[in-house]
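Incident log, support desk, overnight shift.

02:14 A customer reports that sequence design results differ from what the structure should imply. Their input is reproduced verbatim below. On-call engineer (initials T.W.) acknowledged and began investigating.
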């Protein structure tokens, strides 16, 4: 939600005025003058500037109270396009989107992140070029590119930092490499943060406080508080996979074993525990196949993983007090068993007031949540008041 107060006063520029339109409303110039307190002449000049820059377009006429009906204007989401790229351990998905995040085209492939940055990012660059051509968009219409990667990212530089499953990516200049082909803002974040942004935008836009937890080969959390993504100082907020979990009697592992959350509750950990019990689970996918087939041992192992995860999330609930915890990732897609374990512990361990209105739900935004989140990362940057003023100055 855009605050009307941000555009009041004589110093507000066209970029500030534009923020009112991002809630997808149409306005007449008279309505804008009344809303902002700016003069009609100032409103007219700034609206004309935004129309000439393509960011606003005609929205027909308002109902007249007498005389000629006043013209209305609204946001033009096709003024520019953005790209969201979601890079996983073994897959890549690139989406071309308008300025509201609507998908205009996608390219996907199976590609290993372990092939290294130059190979994987060359595919991203090629995919962007193909999407622009297929959509009939001049490359000059591209406003920015967002990229999600499966590892920790230093937010200020967009470089991965000691990523465990990304050999060759440590400190690699991702924005610099892609920027050789496209002279636009290039923003990089970890995969869980972009999933949180995508899920929030598509499913829970009215919720200000949300935690998104991805449970797959690893475990991580994306934190939205006060409607804003929280990254922490260098960008490691939500890295819960290495939080140590206290031993409990239900755990299948020895008390002296590694008690990091990922080591006991990830898909890889579930597969290992089932394998130790003689079941044919070489991977997380094998374990989830057993869960979906109704295997009681696999179901209990997954529920126990949920309990272990719940120990960490109970602390997050007490500290952050979110309205919703969203559980995503391949293990969450195995059914309600993981969530049942999480709920069992969170509602028992957390303060009653913190859980009074708390919902713990499975992710609902589907396979394109990552690309949508990466696109939103860019949209938030390029449609800020400052960026819009700069865009209009260059037009």
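02:41 Re-run completed on a clean worker. Output:
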């Amino acid at each position: 939600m855009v605050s009307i107060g941000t555009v009041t006063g004589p110093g507000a520029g066209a970029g500030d005025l534009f923020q009112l339109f991002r809630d997808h409303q149409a306005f007449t110039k008279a309505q804008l003058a009344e809303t902002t307190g700016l003069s009609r002449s100032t409103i007219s000049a700034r609206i004309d500037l935004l129309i000439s820059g393509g960011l606003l377009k005609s929205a027909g006429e308002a109902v007249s109270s007498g005389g000629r009906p006043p013209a209305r204007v609204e946001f033009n989401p096709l003024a520019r396009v953005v790209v969201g790229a979601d890079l996983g351990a073994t897959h890549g998905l690139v989406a071309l989107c308008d300025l509201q995040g609507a998908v205009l085209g996608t390219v996907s492939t199976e590609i290993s992140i372990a092939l290294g940055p130059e190979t994987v990012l060359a595919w991203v660059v090629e995919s962007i070029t193909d999407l622009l051509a297929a959509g009939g968009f001049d490359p000059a219409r591209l406003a920015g590119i967002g990229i999600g990667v499966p590892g920790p990212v230093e937010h200020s530089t967009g470089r991965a930092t000691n990523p465990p499953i990304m050999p060759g990516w440590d400190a690699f200049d991702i924005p610099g490499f892609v920027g050789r082909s496209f002279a636009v803002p290039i923003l990089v974040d970890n995969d869980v943060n972009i999933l949180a942004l995508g899920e929030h935008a598509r499913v829970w836009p009215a919720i200000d406080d949300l935690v998104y937890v991805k449970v797959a080969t690893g475990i991580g959390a994306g934190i939205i508080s006060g409607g804003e993504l929280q990254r922490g100082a260098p960008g490691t907020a939500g890295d819960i996979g290495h939080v140590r979990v206290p031993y409990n009697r239900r755990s299948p592992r020895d008390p002296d074993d590694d008690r990091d959350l990922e080591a006991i509750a990830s898909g890889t950990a579930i597969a290992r525990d089932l394998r130790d019990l003689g079941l044919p689970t070489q991977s997380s996918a094998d374990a989830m196949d057993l869960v979906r087939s109704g295997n009681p041992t696999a179901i209990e192992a997954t529920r126990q993983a949920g309990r272990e995860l719940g120990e960490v999330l109970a602390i997050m609930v007490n500290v952050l007090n979110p309205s919703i915890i969203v559980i995503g990732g391949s293990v969450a897609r195995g059914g309600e068993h993981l969530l049942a374990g999480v709920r069992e512990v969170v509602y028992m361990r957390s303060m009653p007031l913190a859980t009074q209105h708390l919902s713990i739900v499975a992710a609902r935004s589907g396979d394109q949540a990552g690309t949508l989140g990466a696109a939103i990362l860019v949209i938030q940057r390029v449609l800020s008041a400052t960026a819009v003023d700069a865009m209009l100055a260059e037009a």
